[in-house]
C-alpha cells in the first residue's frame, strides 16, 4: 500500500490536458489507496460528526432564511475545480461549508422553520444515511445485495403495519412495498402500472383517450407525473373543491366528471386521492371515492406524503377509512417520521402489475444460483430507476431505535404544539383560522378590517404580513397557501428541534408584525381620509 | 429541555393501539428533544464512523457475495417493529448490522468486486453524504436553500469542464446542468423534454407516431424510460450492432431506420447514444450519429453513465468527438468518480426545453423577494421530482478534496490494472479477449476446445466458469455479458480498494477454475469416448 505521502505527490503531478495518451509519468504513479483508507475515514469522519453536532447545537442562532441575493455564492467561488487539492483540503472545505455555505442556506432543521412541510430529522435517520453511504451497495436485484432487498421487504411491512395499513398492501398479505426517493416517483410508478394495465385491455394506441383525476388541491407532482406518462394535458381533471367541504374531493363531483368522460368516449384511468394536501392538509374521503372509481375500473392511488406519518397514531386511523379498496399508497417518511431525506414508502396491492409495466429482463444481470426457483423480489422491476440506495437500513434503524411508541410521541408532540398555536390564533380576534387544523399545520390569516377594504384587501394584507414575519431574522419562517381565492399563512409544526416556546415566540412575532401593519394602515387611512 | 431519562420514559409509555383519541397520558408526555440532540448525535455519530472504518479495514476478509438463500434475513427478523426501543437500541442495532446484515450483503466496496460496474466510494464521498443527511435541506427552489442551488450550478460547471464537455452544455455557455439520482431519471427527463417539444409542433395526439432509437447494446433504462413516457412499445428501435463494429451503433443503420420510419409516416424523435455500454463499454460515434439525427430533427442524448468519469482524462476525450452537437448528456459520478451512490450529472443545451416539459408554477411555493427580477434556477422545474437531496455538496467536496488531477490518477490506476488483466488473459492462449478493452472493463472468455464441441459449447463452458469463479469465497466476483450470441465474462476494475495484487489474484482464480473445468471435461470426454 502506498504511503499517504506518495499518494499526495501523485495527486500533485502535473496536469496533462493536452496529452492524447497516458503520459509516461502518470503511468508510473501509484494508485491512491488513501482515498478509502480506514484511518483517513476515521479521522475525517470524526471531524464531520463534530461539525454536524456543532451545527445542531447552534441551530437556534441562524436566521432560518438567509438574506442573500442571487449569485452571492456563484460569484464567490472559483470558476473551475482545483487541479490539485490544497493542503488539508478536507478541513479547509469544511471551514468553507461553515463560513460560506451554511450562512446561505435555508435551515430546514431550525426549530423556527414552519414553512412548507417539515424535513424530518433525527440522529438515527442522519446516521442511517451515513451508514448507507459508507457501505455503499446498489441493491437493484436480490442477488446484488440479498440482505438489502430482504431488509427492505421487512421494513415496508413493519412500517405498513405501524401505519395501520391493510394487510392486502403488505408482503404479508400478498401485496408489497418498496422505498423510493420521493412521492413524485411513487405516483408516476403507480400511474404507469395503471396505464399499461388499461392499455393492455383497450390497445396501446388509445393512450390519447385516457383521463386521470385529482382535485384542485392535489400536489402538482401528480400533474407532472401524468404529463411524463403521456396523458394528454387536457385529460387531467382537477376537480374543484370548496371551503364547506374543507377542500376535500367530492365523490359526487368525481362521479359526474367520470361519467362525462365516459359519455364523451374517453377512458377514466386513475384517481390520485390525497390524505393531507400540501396547502391545507385536506383529507379526501377515500372509501367513497374508491366506490366511485371502482365502478369505472379506475386505479386509486393515495398520496399521503405528509399525513401518512400521522397514521402511526391510532387516533388518526379514521382519515384513511376505506383504504382497503385502494390499489396503491405512498407516504414520505422523510417528511415527518424522523427518516431524513429521502425516503418515500410505496405499497401496492398487486406487485405483478408494477412489474408488468416497469420490469426488465436482461441476461447480463447476475442471477444467483441460490435464488433460482425462488420468487425473489428484484426491486429494479418495481420502479423507474435501476440504481437505488439502501434506504431500508435507515428506516429499519429509525423504527428499531425509536420504536412505534416513540414515533407516536414524536407526532403527538407536534400535533399538541400545533393545537397550542391554533388556540393562540383563535384567542386573538384580529385573526381567523381558515381551515380546521387536522394534523400539525395551522392555516390562518389576519382579518382585514372593513374600513381598510375588508375581504377585498385581505389577501394583500396577509401577503404583506408573511413578508414581514419572514423578514425578522430571529423569527419564524412560514409559507402560504392560496385556496379558494383565500390567501393564508401556513404554520407547519414539525421540525424535530421545535419546542413549545418556539411556537409561542413565533405567534408573538406574527402578532407584533400584524400590529405594526395595522397601525401603519391606520395612519395611511387617517392621512388619506 | 427534558433530560434523556425523561425522554426514555416517554418512549416506553404504553402502546395505545385501540384508542380513538389521544390518550390523556400521552398528551402529558414531553416531546423528545434528544431525537436530534447534539450530544447524542456526537456519541452515536462517532460509533457509526468507527463502525464504517472497521468495515473498510476488514473489507478484504468478506466473501464478496454471500452464500445465503432467499428468506435468510426475513425469517430471522421479527414480523413487527418494536413498540418500545430496547435499552441501547442504537448499539444493539449496529451489532445486528454487523452480525446479521453485513454477512448477507454483496460487498460492492470489496477490492475483489469486479462485477457490473463499480459503485465508486471515497472517504470524502461517503462523508459528503453524511453531511448532506445531517444538514438535511430540500433545495427544490432557489429560495428553499439558496446556497444549495448555487453550489449545484457551480459544481455542474466544474464537473462539466473537468470532463471536457463543450461550453454550450454548461451554465457558463447558456446551457446548464443538475445532479439527479440516476441515469434512468436523466434519460427520462431528456426524453420528455424532447417529446413535448416535438408534440408542440405536431400536436399532442400524435404521441403514437413518435419513434425513438438506440442500439441493441443500449441500457434497458432507455427502453424503460421510453415506455414510461408513453412511446408505443414497438416504436423503440434497438438497432442491431455487430462485433466488427465493436458493437457500436452504425450511423448508416440509424439513417436507414429513421428514413424507413419517415417513409411509414412516423416521426423520429429521440436517439439515446451510449459512450461505454453496460455489456462491453462500446462507444457509439456521437458526431456521425448527430449528423444523421439532426437531418431528421431528432434530439440526441448521450448516456455516458460509466465511461463519463473517464473523460476527466484528456486521453479519453476522443470518445465523445462531436459532442458539441448533442442536446443532452449524462454520466454517473457514483459509478467511477469517487462520489458515492447516488449522483448522476445531467447537462442540457437548452434548459428552457426541460422547464417547458417539467416546470410547474404554484403560488404556494415561496418566492424570495431577493430573487424577484432575477432569473434564478428552481431545480424542481428541471426534473421529475420535487424533493431532492443536496448532492452538490458531496460532488463539490470530491472535486475540491481530490482535485481534477487526483481524479485522473484514480481513473488511470484502474485503467492500468485493467490493462494488466487484459495482458494476462492474452498471455494464456486458452482464453480470448472478446472485445477490445476501452476503459477498465475486460470482456473475455475461455475458448472451447474443438474436441469438446468448439463454438457450440463455448457459452455453456463460460457460464460454468463464471459460476465456479464466483463460488470461490476468497476469490473475485465477476459478471457476464452476452453480446452477438457470445457469452463472456466481465472483469470491471473500479473498486476504490482494488490494488494490483487483487487483479493478479483474480486472474489466478480464473485460470485455476478453467483448468479444473477443462480437466473434468477431459475425463468425461475420455470416459464417454
TrEMBL record, chains A, B:
<dbReference type="GO" id="GO:0019752">
    <property type="term" value="P:carboxylic acid metabolic process"/>
</dbReference>
<dbReference type="GO" id="GO:0006520">
    <property type="term" value="P:amino acid metabolic process"/>
</dbReference>
<keyword id="KW-0663">Pyridoxal phosphate</keyword>
<dbReference type="InterPro" id="IPR002129">
    <property type="entry name" value="PyrdxlP-dep_de-COase"/>
</dbReference>
<dbReference type="GO" id="GO:0005737">
    <property type="term" value="C:cytoplasm"/>
</dbReference>
<dbReference type="Pfam" id="PF00282">
    <property type="entry name" value="Pyridoxal_deC"/>
</dbReference>
<protein>
    <submittedName>
        <fullName>Predicted protein</fullName>
    </submittedName>
</protein>
<dbReference type="InterPro" id="IPR015422">
    <property type="entry name" value="PyrdxlP-dep_Trfase_small"/>
</dbReference>
<keyword id="KW-0210">Decarboxylase</keyword>
<dbReference type="InterPro" id="IPR010977">
    <property type="entry name" value="Aromatic_deC"/>
</dbReference>
<comment type="similarity">
    <text>Belongs to the group II decarboxylase family.</text>
</comment>
<dbReference type="GO" id="GO:0016831">
    <property type="term" value="F:carboxy-lyase activity"/>
</dbReference>
<feature type="modified residue" description="N6-(pyridoxal phosphate)lysine">
    <location>
        <position position="335"/>
    </location>
</feature>
<dbReference type="GO" id="GO:1901162">
    <property type="term" value="P:primary amino compound biosynthetic process"/>
</dbReference>
<keyword id="KW-0456">Lyase</keyword>
<dbReference type="InterPro" id="IPR015424">
    <property type="entry name" value="PyrdxlP-dep_Trfase"/>
</dbReference>
<dbReference type="GO" id="GO:0046189">
    <property type="term" value="P:phenol-containing compound biosynthetic process"/>
</dbReference>
<dbReference type="InterPro" id="IPR015421">
    <property type="entry name" value="PyrdxlP-dep_Trfase_major"/>
</dbReference>
<dbReference type="GO" id="GO:0030170">
    <property type="term" value="F:pyridoxal phosphate binding"/>
</dbReference>
Amino acid at each position: 500500500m502506498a504511503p499517504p505521502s506518495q499518494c499526495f505527490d501523485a495527486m500533485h503531478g502535473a496536469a496533462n490536458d493536452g496529452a492524447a495518451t497516458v503520459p509516461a509519468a502518470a503511468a508510473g504513479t501509484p494508485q491512491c489507496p488513501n482515498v478509502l483508507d480506514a484511518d483517513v475515514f476515521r479521522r475525517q469522519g470524526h471531524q464531520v460528526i463534530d461539525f454536524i453536532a456543532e451545527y445542531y447545537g447552534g441551530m437556534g442562532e441562524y436566521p432560518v432564511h438567509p438574506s442573500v441575493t442571487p449569485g452571492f455564492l456563484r460569484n464567490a467561488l472559483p470558476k473551475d475545480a482545483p487541479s490539485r487539492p490544497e493542503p488539508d483540503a478536507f478541513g479547509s472545505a469544511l471551514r468553507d461549508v461553515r463560513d460560506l455555505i451554511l450562512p446561505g442556506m435555508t435551515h430546514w432543521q431550525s426549530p423556527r422553520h414552519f414553512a412548507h412541510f417539515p424535513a424530518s430529522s433525527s440522529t438515527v435517520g442522519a446516521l442511517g444515511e451515513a451508514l448507507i453511504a459508507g457501505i455503499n451497495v446498489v441493491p437493484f436485484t436480490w442477488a446484488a445485495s440479498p440482505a438489502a432487498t430482504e431488509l427492505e421487504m421487512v421494513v415496508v411491512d413493519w412500517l405498513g403495519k405501524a401505519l395501520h395499513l391493510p394487510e392486502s398492501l403488505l408482503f404479508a398479505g400478498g401485496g408489497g412495498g418498496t422505498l423510493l426517493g420521493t412521492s413524485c416517483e411513487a405516483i408516476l410508478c403507480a400511474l404507469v402500472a395503471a396505464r399499461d394495465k388499461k392499455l393492455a385491455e383497450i390497445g396501446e394506441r388509445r393512450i390519447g383517450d385516457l383521463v386521470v383525476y385529482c382535485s384542485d388541491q392535489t400536489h402538482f407532482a401528480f400533474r407532472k407525473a401524468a404529463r411524463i406518462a403521456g396523458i394528454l394535458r387536457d385529460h387531467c381533471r382537477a376537480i374543484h373543491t370548496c371551503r364547506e367541504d374543507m377542500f376535500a374531493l367530492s365523490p359526487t363531483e368525481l362521479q359526474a366528471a367520470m361519467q362525462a368522460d365516459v359519455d364523451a368516449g374517453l377512458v377514466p384511468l386513475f384517481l390520485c386521492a390525497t390524505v393531507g394536501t400540501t396547502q391545507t392538509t385536506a383529507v379526501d374521503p377515500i372509501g367513497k371515492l374508491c366506490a366511485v372509481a371502482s365502478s369505472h375500473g379506475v386505479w386509486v392511488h393515495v398520496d399521503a406524503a405528509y399525513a401518512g406519518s400521522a397514521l402511526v397514531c391510532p387516533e388518526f386511523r379514521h382519515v384513511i377509512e376505506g383504504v382497503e379498496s385502494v390499489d396503491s399508497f405512498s407516504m414520505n417518511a422523510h417528511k415527518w417520521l424522523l427518516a431524513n431525506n429521502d425516503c418515500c414508502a410505496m405499497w401496492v396491492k398487486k406487485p405483478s402489475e408494477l412489474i408488468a409495466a416497469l420490469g426488465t429482463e436482461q441476461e447480463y444481470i447476475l442471477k444467483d444460483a441460490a435464488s433460482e426457483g425462488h420468487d425473489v423480489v428484484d426491486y429494479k422491476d418495481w420502479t423507474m430507476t435501476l440504481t437505488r440506495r439502501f434506504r431500508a437500513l435507515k428506516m429499519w434503524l429509525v423504527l428499531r431505535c425509536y420504536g412505534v411508541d416513540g414515533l407516536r410521541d414524536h407526532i403527538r408532540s407536534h400535533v399538541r404544539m400545533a393545537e397550542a398555536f391554533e388556540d393562540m390564533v383563535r384567542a386573538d380576534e384580529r385573526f381567523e383560522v381558515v381551515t380546521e387544523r387536522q394534523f400539525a399545520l395551522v392555516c390562518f390569516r389576519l382579518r382585514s378590517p372593513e374600513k381598510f377594504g375588508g375581504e377585498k384587501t385581505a389577501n394583500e394584507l396577509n401577503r404583506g404580513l408573511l413578508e414581514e414575519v419572514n423578514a425578522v431574522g430571529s423569527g419564524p419562517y412560514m409559507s402560504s397557501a392560496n385556496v379558494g381565492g383565500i390567501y393564508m399563512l401556513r404554520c407547519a409544526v414539525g421540525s424535530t428541534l421545535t419546542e413549545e416556546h418556539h411556537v409561542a415566540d413565533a405567534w408573538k412575532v406574527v402578532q407584533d408584525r400584524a400590529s405594526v401593519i395595522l397601525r401603519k394602515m391606520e395612519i395611511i387611512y387617517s392621512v388619506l381620509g
